[in-house]
Amino acid sequence: MAEETVVEKTWRGILERHPGARRGEPAVIEAAYAEPRLRALFPFPSHGALNFHRNTQFPWSNDLPFIVGDVTSCIVYAPLGVPQRVLGESLTPQEAAALVVAHLPPDCGPAFDGPWPPPENSID
After folding, report:
1. H helices of the chain, where?
2. Exposure winner among 13, 20, 24, 69, fewest CB in 10 A?
3. pTM of the entire structure?
């Protein structure tokens, strides 16, 4: 059996609410985890938001959309620096996760282990 990656271990810890794992809104975490493209990214719940990163160590990529909300209503925000910050609001967690996927850059592959920026030749 293959060893668990940092991304897989982080998702598992959050989903199973392990001691020491970051906490987030369970409905939002589960909806994001159900999306294969988001499940491949590094999850980072913080201050009511679920952020996604292309890498597993600080400094973070901070260039992907993120979700703020709970089981009743979510907002999807574009990353800082994008003129239209709100991509969608009054969404279910599942709709929010799908909207994040729809706004991922085409080259957004699985998260790599390490800090941002990526090592040369790791992202095509």
Report:
1. 6-15, 26-33, 36-39, 93-102
2. 20
3. 0.92
Span 80-117, pLDDT tens digits = 889 999 999 999 999 999 999 999 999 998 999 999 98
CA pair distance 8, 87, nearest whole angstrom? 27
**What is the spatial distance between Cα 20 and Cα 72, in angstroms, rounded to a whole number?**
27
The set of residues, in sequence order, having a beta carbon less than 8 Å from that of 99 and lying 6+ positions away, is 65, 76, 87, 88, 91
Q: What is the greatest pairwise CA distance in the chain?
A: 45
Coil, strand or helix at 65: coil
Q: Tell me: the pLDDT tens digits for 23-73?
A: 999 999 999 999 999 999 999 999 999 999 999 999 999 999 999 999 999
